[in-house]
Each structure stands twice: as C-alpha cells, then as structure tokens.
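Project standup — Tuesday

K.O.: blocked on the structure for the chain from last sprint. Re-posting the sequence here as requested.
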Amino acid sequence: MPTMADVARCAGVSVATVSHVLNDTRPVLPHTRRAVLDAIDELGYTPNTLARSLVTSRTRSIGLAVSAISNPYFTEILQGVEAAALEHGYGLLIADPHDDPEHERKVVQLLHERRVDGVIVAPSAEPGELVAYLTRHQVPAVFLDRVVAVPAHAAPRFDQVCAENTEPVTRLVTHLADLGHRRIALVAGLPGLSTTRERIAGYRHGLAAAGLPHDERLVAYGDSATEAAERATAALLSLTAPPTALVTGNNAMTIGALRALRERGLSVPGDIALCCFDDFAWADLFSPRLTAIAQPGNEMGARAVRVLLERLAAPDRPARTVRLPCSFVHRTSCGCVEQPPQAERARRSEDAEQSTHCAHSEQSEQSAKGTDS
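H.V.: unblocked you, prediction finished:
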C-alpha cells in the first residue's frame, strides 16, 4: 500500500507539502498541488483519515439530524447538504430525531461522540435539551429550516439557515382573496415550530391586507403530518360556514387535506380552492395542478454546510440567521384557468426576478450590518 512518502517522491516534493495539500493546512502553489494530486491518482494512495484526525483534531465529517428523511422536502435538503459536504471534502453522518425532543438530544449526542466536526440540525418544537447539550459541550452547530430563540452572545454561537415563511403565505392568502374568497382557512403545522408560527403570521397578514377578519375557527392544526391534517381539514369542512378556500402548511398536510376532500366528494377548485406551502415533484401531475410555494431546499442544505464551515474557521464570529427566498408556483388548484406556455414562462421569469431582488436586498442588508439577518 503506497504511503505519503511514496506520494512525495513521485511528485518531487516534501512529505510536509503532501500533508498540506491533503489537509488544507497551508497554501500550496497550484502546479505543486496538481503534481501531488496526480501522484495520488497514479499510486492509488488513500489517506489514513484516522491518523489525520489525531493530528488535526478534525475528522472532516458533519452530522446531520433531520426528521422525516422520507419527506421530499427534507430529501432535497439532504441532497444539498451531501453535495456541499463532498465538495469541501467532508463526509456525512445522518440521524433522524423523529421530532421528539428527547430522541433529538440522544441522536445529536451520538453524532458528537463520533467526533463529527459540527452538526446541522432541524430542531424540534421543544429544543431545550438540544440547545443545553450543544452549549455544554461547545458543539459547532447550524439550525436548519426552523429558527430557535437563543441569546445573541451564547457560547457556542448558533447560526441558522431557513426559508422565508411569512411573506409567501401572505401571498397565497391575498391571491385567494383576489379571486373572491372571503372564508380562507389554514391547516397549520406542529405547534411550537417556528415555521408554524411564521406561516400563521403570514396567514393573518394576508387576511389583514385583503381587509378580511381573522376567525380563529378557520385555523386548524395538522401537526405537520398527513393523518392529523386529514382530521383538521375534516373539522374545517364541518363548520356551519365552511371555508371556500384552503391553505396547507406543508406537503404532508396537503396530502391529508386532499384525502379529506376526497372523502367528502369535494372537487378542487370547483367546490373549494387549494393552495399549499411546499412544492413537490408530483404537484404538477395532480388534477388540478397544485398552486404552491416552493422552498429552495437544495440551496438551503448547501448554505447550511457553508455556514457551518465558516463557523469552524472562525468560532468567535457573530451568530447569524440566513433566510432564503421562496418562489410562487402558479397552477390551477387556486381556481385560475390554465395559462398558455408563453404566459407561464413570462410569469416564472417575473417570479425569478422578484426572488433575485429579494436575495440581493437581503445581501445588501447583511453587508450593511456586517452579518446575515
């Protein structure tokens, strides 16, 4: 089996230079780096990661803890995390906390005990034990998708990466109101999650913007799950004055809502209009096609890796929260007629420009503050 010394002889450099190329511990001239990498390929050299971790105190691995890995949204995030980790030479260890606070702390502890350099976590609705463990053991961490309220100067400093939640739901509600709906209901997610709070806030903002009263009876909790959302939708449909339009808080709850509507023999959008938060691969195949908010899951996962690596490089930098813009995918479940291809392309181009403007505005604001917000 070839050794590092063999690579050094083949490349015509010192063993120390080979080490710097492998560990990124010192800048190396491009042609020298290329010679080392060519020698590694020629000899079939495989670095001893265990020995390297003993020297550098780094394992070049990241722990990822997200619930419902089978959910297409989290699958997309996982793909973004994995690709970005691989790009930067990091391996990935994955665990499912099942949105259970106690189990969440246990799986993060297991990841930490396997000496990952840092963790990316989609926190549960009650993340107290998680935050306490990460704080006690000074584990570099990025909270993903869901925001956790932690002191600004906590040690370690926790960064957060998530999507915009409030404005996109406001847009769904105002769109339905513009179509003439006056009783617009919301199937909200699991109480306690920041995404649930923010999407309810967006729902209320949308009602206010449309001049509609807020009726608590039109908000039902689907607990971010299919079965609970089916029950929540059935309860909304049983009201004396049922809603004429429905907004669902995530893709799993959209499936539950559709099941409840089918059980009652109701058609979309003929009997009730439907808009959903979370786009997914087969939303375009439903009849009618689902009008949805699409989250940038892949980009969110990749950004979380970059933010974590920046934290590892500068442990004392200020904590930051990065919010990524979502896009409005206009289809026909809201009650709008099918748009011709040219109009659809023009609308998507306009939405892309708006998203880019939001992103640029966010970057400008972050630059002015010296941190992401």
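K.O.: great, moving the ticket to review. The mean pLDDT is 87. The longest helix spans residues 341-369.
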